[in-house]
Design brief:
It is built from 15 helices and 7 strands. Helix 1 links the parallel strand 1 and strand 2. Helix 8 packs across helix 12. The protein is globular, with a radius of gyration of 23 Å. A 7-stranded mixed β-sheet has the order 3-2-1-4-5-6-7, with helices on both faces. It is of the alpha/beta class. The chain binds NADPH dihydro-nicotinamide-adenine-dinucleotide phosphate (NDP).
Length: about 325
């Protein structure tokens, strides 16, 4: 994971996409945003095709003026460029069974997350380009920032350069970035955020036991949007420099408190997750075993079961009470 190279808009030549049929598999968070951005950037509508099953996503795509193909084999046959923008867990099944056999041997395949490429779960032909264009932004913002004329950072890499022109097509860098992107994404999801959730949960429990009210706690900790504000300042001013916006008491408390924490146990815990859970493929293997169950309804769906267990947290119960009391005022 060396130093990443930064490309700017001026490095990208949209001309390489002229006359190419661009198929978007999926019209969800990323699909709808990316397809609309692409069209607004000057790619003619008749070069763009949305592949989606018959349902509300397809209807939304039609309402936005896109052509929609429900037959995936037909969409695959015409694609010069295929964006795979359906949830990661269904990509291997849908792509390998319905797209891969029909795709052109020199097609360019674009993924928005390195996950399935990193773990070799998608079947590509040797002459195809496989590139990753992974916006570091949630789908709705991919669209709204573009509408405001603003950009956002994006990880780009060429994972397979079948035509030799993968770099031009996606302004890509090296396969190392797929690893970097995937490992970093999974690390944030499996190490950083679980600990942040756990810290909020335990901080809440301690303060609640000390007699603080639900309202004060929920507002102090997140409902006032103060943490969101702080992260915005961190992005603009600097991770530590943003502290200067806080009171002197707060600055002193935060800096002296964090420097006092040595972090050794946490470092070991994080390394364990990175090496033994993510890079070893252990998580990927376990996740692929529950993949089909994620389409189930109710308790048969493991994600629902996790949500149900999370709702047992005192923090979540308190939040529900606060929201119910404030209903209509929020
Ligand atoms: P969504 O959950 O929004 O995808 C929904 C789309 O996938 C719909 O078009 C849906 O249509 C289709 N879909 C779902 N299940 C199936 C299936 N079994 N067969 C065919 N189509 C299906 O996905 P995201 O946009 O969130 O994610 C897409 C990719 O973008 C992923 O690789 C993700 O990691 C990546 N990404 C997402 C980000 C985000 O902010 N969400 C950020 C950066 C990257 P229908 O149900 O009608 O079939």
């Amino acid at each position: 994971m060396g130093q990443a190279k930064i490309y700017y808009d001026s490095d990208a030549d949209l001309g390489v996409l002229s006359n190419k049929k661009i198929v978007f598999l999926g019209f969800g968070n990323q699909g709808s945003a990316q397809a609309q951005n692409l069209r607004d950037s000057g790619i003619p509508n008749d070069q763009i095709l949305i592949a989606n099953r018959v349902d509300s996503y397809a209807e939304t795509a039609k309402a936005k003026g896109f052509r929609v193909e429900h037959d995936f084999a037909k969409a695959a046959e015409v694609a010069d460029v295929l964006f795979i923008l359906i949830p990661d867990q269904v990509q291997p099944r849908v792509f390998n069974e319905q797209f891969s056999p029909k795709l052109k041997s020199n097609a360019t395949i674009v993924v928005a997350s390195g996950y399935n490429v990193f773990f070799n779960l998608l079947k590509f032909q040797p002459g195809q380009d496989v590139v990753m264009v992974a916006p570091r932004m949630i789908g709705s913002s991919v669209r709204s920032l573009h509408e405001k004329g603003r950009g956002f950072p994006c990880f780009v890499s060429v994972e397979q350069n079948g035509t030799g022109k993968g770099l031009d097509a996606a302004l890509a860098l090296s396969r190392a970035i797929v690893r970097e992107e995937t490992a970093m994404d999974l690390f944030a999801e499996q190490a950083l955020w679980p600990n942040i959730i756990m810290m909020f949960r335990e901080a809440f429990n301690v303060l609640k036991d000390a007699g603080c009210s639900d309202e004060a706690l929920c507002y102090e900790m997140w409902m006032s949007k103060e943490p969101a504000e702080i992260f915005e300042r961190a992005a603009d001013d600097g991770f530590v420099a943003q502290l200067k916006h806080h009171s002197t008491v707060s600055q002193y408390g935060q800096l002296s408190g964090s420097l006092k924490l040595e972090g050794g146990a946490m470092r070991e815990h994080f390394k364990d997750i990175l090496y033994n859970q993510i890079l070893s493929g252990k998580f990927c293997k376990a996740f692929s075993q529950i993949e089909d169950d994620l389409d189930e309804e109710g308790d048969a769906n493991p994600l629902n079961e996790l949500y149900k267990r999370s709702e047992e947290m005192e923090l979540i119960k308190a939040e529900k009470r606060v929201r119910a009391r404030l209903a209509g005022l929020l």
